[in-house]
Amino acid sequence: MDYEDIEILFAEDSMEDAMLTVRALNKSGFTNKLLHVKDGAEALDFLYCRGMYSERNPKSHPKLLLLDLKMPKMSGMQVLEKVKSDENLKSIPIVILTSSQEDPDIAKCYSLGANSYIVKPVDSNNFFNAIKELGMYWMILSQPAF
């Protein structure tokens, strides 16, 4: 895979949620440049060109980072905090895509610099539509800072 063309970095440990999200983005035409990683540590490896991503160009950034909050190894909140505190990465829009409706999680994510916080709808049709609109907004309408 050519990691230089990745536009959406998607960190999600639930394979079921990942498949639904990828399917919705695919139907919207946004998955040809998507990379799904299974935890926060792998997301940071990609962004910092470490491990299996060491050959990747460090100046090539995704246009969007989709993060689940509750992941093994490193949580989405930890990834959010790391990315938004890094001068080279902080302009990447980060959308939290999670099942947590906890007010402290929402407030903390926004205070750390999340651009959006979306609670995954339980109903798969609503989830599909939410992802489709998310892709449309961030990949077509929103203008990147870099």
TrEMBL record:
Residues 7-135 form the Response regulatory domain. The modification 4-aspartylphosphate is found at D68. It comes from the Bacteria. Keywords: Phosphoprotein. GO terms for biological process: phosphorelay signal transduction system. The keyword Phosphoprotein applies. PANTHER family: RESPONSE REGULATOR RCP1-RELATED, TWO-COMPONENT SYSTEM REGULATORY PROTEIN. This is Two-component system response regulator. It comes from Flavobacterium hercynium.
